[in-house]
Design a protein that fits this description.
96 residues; two-stranded antiparallel ribbon; 2 helices; 6 strands; four-stranded antiparallel sheet; alpha+beta
Length: 96
């Protein structure tokens, strides 16, 4: 990937994601499926101005879905769990 703004798609606001954010200072985000750990780290540090300690990625295959006779498939996704260094904080929703 060449443009860092294409690497990070959106933050994932789930119960599990909010729990690890509060407890372990980890951020859960959806990333481009062709992005690697180095690109994700670089994008997080440049866009959000935080120091990243570790990046873990999870690839999720799309599920098969039926619509009557035809069978379709949801698109594949990739998630990243970004661990921030001690003292760093990132808040996507401020004022809540």
């Amino acid at each position: 990937m060449k443009i860092i703004y294409d690497v990070i798609k959106k933050p994932l606001f789930t119960e599990k994601g909010m729990e690890i954010k509060e407890r372990e200072n980890k951020i859960l985000i959806q990333v481009a499926s062709e992005a690697n750990k180095h690109e994700i780290r670089q994008a997080m540090e440049e866009i959000f101005k935080v120091k990243v300690e570790k990046v873990a990625t999870v690839s999720i295959k799309g599920k098969l879905k039926r619509h009557g006779k035809s069978i379709g498939r949801r698109s594949d996704k990739k998630k990243a769990i970004v661990t921030l260094k001690k003292g760093e904080k990132l808040d996507f929703v401020e004022g809540v």
